[in-house]
Amino acid sequence: MANVGSNPSFVWRSLLAARVIIFRGLKWRVGNGRTIGVYTHKWLSYKPIPRTEAVLDTRVCELIDEDARQWDRGKLDAMFSQRTREEILSIPLDHLQSQFIMANVGSNPSFVWRSLLAARVIIFRGSKWRVGNGRTIGVYTHKWLSYKPIPRTEAVLDIRVCELIDEDARQWDRGKLDAMFSQRTREEILSIPLDHLQSQDMLVWIENAAQKLSVKTAYRVALRSSTQSWTEYSGAREDGPTWNKVWDLKVPPKVRMFLWRAVSTGLPTRDKLHQRRVNVDTQCEFCFHNTETVHHILRECPFAQNVWALFSG
């Protein structure tokens, strides 16, 4: 429910604009139905009217006969009015295996679709899969570990996480892990608890304790993604003492903020504006020789070096 604020950045305005589009102008397209709540998500033209007392957390996937790849008419007859049943039955099930995180741009994408796929990069960077039954997570195709798994042997790329689990013992199959992965990968997999084997796999947000996507945390991911790689930022984020020193400096707040933005490469330099599709010349306006980056304008540019020389005597 965040507000635009008095002086919003380009990224912040874009995220808020996308939020309006998502919540007002779109509805869910049924893929495998595992993430769509029958009564909690907008997937029909109106809110479904159940004929019987319904469970509010029912998922659309529970209304689908996956073996027959069609709607379960028995469940629909028992749960919904005729009008609702007719609308549900009119929805094709051509995308039972599709997922937004894996979708392609297509040959003639709309502006809305291109915008959503651009935001998908942010979602991918700030989230990972939590293992439930492991049936929808590809070992080598989905982000479920802190890095891409390194197999010890030639592996089948379409193998699923569920194939690494001994369901009878309700634990990881150590024999398969020993045969397939390096020690580092085995240790990380074994550290993942299997407390949700009866549940669906879930894509969770890892940028806050609640594991819920918010505009604020998405903005942070977008800001750092435009300037740093995931690995680089992960190391910087853990360097708490350095950031504490910045915020404890006895200088005006605007100076601390400027320093923080400079270290985070968040200043609106010409190269950053160009990355955000602003039509500007990226050349430094002081030396006219190099691209205006944060490092250049504060350290490398002859003009900046002359300024620092004045302070050093």
TrEMBL record:
Reverse transcriptase zinc-binding domain: residues covered = 225-308
Put simply, this protein is called: Reverse transcriptase zinc-binding domain-containing protein
Q: What is the lineage of its organism?
A: Eukaryota, Viridiplantae, Streptophyta, Embryophyta, Tracheophyta
